Structures are given as C-alpha cells and as structure tokens.
C-alpha cells in the first residue's frame, strides 16, 4: 500500500483503492480497516506531494525522493546480483579463463546500471533528454575537477575490454610485484607475496611499463646464475645443474630444463640454469630458495668449488716504513 502511494504520489495523482469496495468483508479487522481508510491514504498522498525544495517551477517532493532512492537501491542490487551470480553459477562451469570470467561479470554489471537508469528515470519523473543534458554539463566538470577519477574509470574500461592484464596475472609495475585479484572501476587490487593488497590506479596500468609474466600462459621461465672455479669439469657442472632441475617437483619436465655456459668471468666459469614452472610463478622466492639450496648441496657433494672474487695487487713503489712492515708480515 505504501508502495502504491509512493508511485501515485506524483503531481496530479490520487490514490483510488479498490479496498474500499470490500470494506464490509473485513469485519472487525481493525488494521485492515485502517489501511482501507481513504482519509489515511489521502494523508500519505498529501505528504508525498509536500515540496522539500523548489527550483524554479519544479518542486522536489518526498514522493520523488522516495522513488529515486528506491530506484537506486534496485539498480545497485540488480548490478551486484548479476556480478555475483554470473561468475559462480555460469562462467565457472565453462573452460573460460578466470580473467575473462571476471571481466565479463564486471561488464555485465555496467550494462545493468545503464539499462536500469534508462528504465528508472522516466518512472521517477525525469525525462531522459534532460538527464543527458545534465550529464553533458557534468562531463565538462569532470574534465576539469575530476580528471583523475574519469581517467582511472576509462582506463578500467580499457583493461576490461582490451585485457592487457587480467585477474590472476602476475605483473610487475616499477618496484611493485604481485598478482591481480580484482579490477575495479577506479583501481586494480594487486596482492604481493607478503599477502599485502595494493590499490593501484587503473591509469598507471595503461600509461606505465607493465611486465606481465603470465600474459601468454601460466608457464614462466626462471634463470639461476652459477659461477664455478676454473678447475671444475664443465661437463660435470652441467650434469649437476640438470640433476638439481630434474629432481625439483616444481620444475616442469617439458620444456626440458637447460644449462647454458655463458662465459669466462674474472674468477669463475659462468653458467645459467633455466627452468620452466607454472605454480611457482606467483611465489618465485620459494622456488629460488629451493633451487639455490639444491645447487649448493649438489656442487658441494661433487667437490665443485664456487669461487669468491680474487684480486692480485702489484705495488710499484712503497715508502720505507710500509716496505719494512710488508717484509715483516711476509717473514
């Protein structure tokens, strides 16, 4: 009944209830008689028409405010329900990538917002033409006062449609390294290895250099540099590093791990072990620690030396007291 009174509480409207025809059937039910009382309904109708603010020849009434708030609530509820229902009920049953699932759900909620606004505006008494004009004027204000917010929102749309990054990707932006867990209208939530959530403005993912480690798939290659003594057998070094890679359960057997002889350093023979992983792409520090421990133990077991930097110092001339001190130290 209140709902009927709200929607009929527009200028020129009047509550005409069919309940009056059935008053005799209500009997002694006092609450129902109260609802059927036309004086009570007329009072609600008059209250809904009461102006709050008058702007020119237009008056903002309680009825208009109630209809507007109810319309906003229904649109917000429908948009959130669409996003929360679409992913777990439909998209997760498909083989679609999780990033595509979240992007589709977010875009669907935006469509609900637009359609809901187009339906609700005429119902609450606002012509669409007037609203479009008002938003055009608001757009000028956005261009000056809210430029950053508008820039981040547009960047968020680009991220959803173009998908240079998506939910679940492992990215690096400057010194920030983490996994994307959500792309919002204004910012993107990135979770670091320390379980810290960072809110990064969407515009930075568009304007800055972004390293997407999982853009082409979940498999990522890692490199482990190792230097050994010049006395070492290079074939045995290669065998030792391959043994480390093949015995680690996180390392993929396909593509096959590789050991590269990179060159001759100042005090060591330089090798690189390259391995491919999937699950460890989001926790690289754990993999690096495991591989480095294994390399150390394997080289030590085989008697392969890992040298430290050494320098030969040649003295051309030394003063008297320093020369005596050096002779005494060498004696």
Give keywords.
331 residues, alpha+beta, SH3 type barrels, 3 domains, five-stranded antiparallel beta sheet, three-stranded antiparallel beta sheet, 10 strands, 18% strand
Give the helices and strands, then pairings.
Layout: H1 2-8, H2 23-26, H3 30-35, H4 38-48, E1 51-55, E2 58-61, H5 62-89, H6 98-123, H7 128-144, H8 147-162, E3 170-173, E4 176-183, E5 187-191, E6 197-201, H9 202-207, E7 211-212, E8 220-228, H10 234-247, E9 258-264, E10 269-277, H11 284-301, H12 320-330
Helix pairs in contact: 1-4, 5-6, 10-11
Description:
It is a single chain. The protein is α+β, with helices and mostly antiparallel strands and 331 residues long. It has three domains: 2-140, no CATH class; 160-212, Roll (SH3 type barrels), CATH 2.30.30.60; 220-301, Alpha-Beta Plaits. 50% of the residues lie in helices and 18% in strands. It has twelve helices and ten strands. The chain has helices at residues 2-8, 23-26, 30-35, 38-48, 62-89, 98-123, 128-144, 147-162, 202-207, 234-247, 284-301, 320-330; strands at residues 51-55, 58-61, 170-173, 176-183, 187-191, 197-201, 211-212, 220-228, 258-264, 269-277. The protein starts with a helix and ends with a helix. Mean pLDDT is 77; it is low at 1-30.
